Amino acid sequence: MLCPYSLSAPGGVQGQVTGLAAALRHDGHDVVVLAPADEGTDLGPDGPDLVRLGRAIAVPANGSVAPVALSPGAVRTALDAVRGGGFEVLHLHEPLVPGPGLACLVRCSLPMVGTFHRAGAGPGYRALGRVARGAAQRLAARCAVSEEAAATAASVLGDGAPYEIVGNGIDTRRLLAATPWPTEGPTVLFVGRHEPRKGLSVLLAAAAALGPDGPTLWVAGEGPDTERLRRRHPAGPRLAWLGRVGDDALAARLAGAHALCAPSVGGESFGVVLLEAMAARTAVVASDIPGYAAVVDGHGVLVPAGDVGAWATALASVTADAAAATGRCAPAALDAAAAHAARWSMPRVAARYVEVYRRVARSPGP
Fold first, then answer.
1. Residue 364 and residue 177 in contact, taking contact as beta carbons nearer than 8 Å
2. What is the number of domains present in the chain?
3. Which of 6, 211, 259, 339 is paired with 329 by a 20 to 30 Å CA distance?
4. Total-model pTM
5. 149 and 256: one domain?
6. 89 touches 2 (CB < 8 A)
7. On the CB side of 180, how many CA atoms lie within 13 Å of its CA?
8. How many angstroms separate the most distant Cα atoms in the chain?
């Protein structure tokens, strides 16, 4: 399994690769992960083997920053590992990203599965699609994490190939076992990189508009906008800046919060944190963008993206619901959302991929 993004940096694709690899290994499959990573990075005592592809450099991509390895040495290490590993299947995540993954797509001969995560195609990605259109024919199966991601890939490759929708997975066991973080009154949580497309500035402005009548806001994560936003919205009784939060602490915050707020303005193909909140029996308030709407599927509140007034109204509503345990914070609604999220447990997602692997391993090579 090849991840184009550094495992030493937090990210949605990285989390899916390591989580999926661990689930496959737990089920008895031999898995090796190839990815950029800093020295000393490992996937834990029970995790799969890791082949490091060197350190990554930060490249602007899709309104964010992608930590990718572009050196000839990284490409050579990946090709040598794949060719000499005795593998039955190579699973490429984001196969159009320049570097080791794209090189393997062009130059390796074993059956390959490609998973497309990206939503939204900018000029650079469209150019990559034109260049890689022929190489993409070498994929024995194309998967996408959502219809939005499939549409993005199809638009840049333009060859009419079918895509299988295999959503991202979540660690439901860790979330169910978490001890809720204590709260004093209605509390909402933001989790994500502090950059414009994640919409944190919109959420902070909406919370500020409610003043002391609004919920407490926990802000997890870091990013290029952190310092600017912290100066504009200093920590106080109703606002806590948590910084980067580990998996166990994040699970506790998700379980303790009354609602998870995801105010992204675009560029989201799925929404793992929405499902994690549902699994933790926490209400979800999210921007009404295609990737999020498909995941929420009626089990949360959707708000026009970037609309501070609409977000303030939504926060006021969830504050009232949390105080009275009604609406989206009612036990029955939370139970239904948790059942919905369970469909994306990582073992279920891994089982879907095993079906794909078995099919392509039996098919003729490219």
1. no
2. 2
3. 211
4. 0.89
5. no
6. no
7. 15
8. 64
